[in-house]
Predict the structure.
Amino acid sequence: MTTVRAISGRLAADPARRTAFAAGVLYLITFVAGIPPTLFLYGDLLSDPAVIVDAAGGTAVLVGGLLEVVNALACIGTAVVLFPVVRRQHEAAALGFVTTRLLEAAIILTGVVSLLSVVTLRQGPLGADPAALAATAGALVAIHGWTDLFGPGLMPVFNALLLGSLLYRSALVPRAIPLLGLLGAPLLLASTVASVLGANEQVSPLSALAVAPIFFWELSLGVYLTVKGFTPTSPLLAGGAPASAPATSTSTVG
């Protein structure tokens, strides 16, 4: 309770703290909304699309789709909230981070539409050929598989490289946090490329090992920003932007 009151007091008095808190909460929302659909709600649909033809699990898929929409919006929110701060370090890199987050969200939403379309097949005309329905469902699930690979699988590489470098250089958070993302980005990129080329399964021990640093980089960033906020000694908060930053980017954090 004391911690909550302390955070509330800082939020009321410090615009930079409000920015950090909002970004941290949005990062945590991406975990809360992004993990359950694949692990729990989509069930056997991803491995056996034919089950949707005669199964009653359409509601769970719809809930999973809505959670993925929340995840996509939270992804965009993290970049939009952080942009006014990190642009002081390097505006082009900050804009690049916003762009990669937007692209990630767009890919996620494409996958959501494909799975929701599978649910629609259950509402098709009576007497429709089950084999044809299963084949169509399989194609739509395959689209979701590719969007899962290129969205949450590939775009975090660029997110980590762009935002990680900005946070590392600006010292807005302890450097161990962005360093985890910077080191994990090449591992995830190699794993994703191997999956595209058929040399690695998208769900495998190797893939899990490759994604772990990125997973913990984003999780630790979300927790730190929510609980602690930006490091007060960061040059971006101590008055004045780095020499490489545009003169127009020195506005007050908020």
In short: Residues 240-254 have pLDDT under 50 and may be disordered. The chain is about 70% helix and 0% strand.
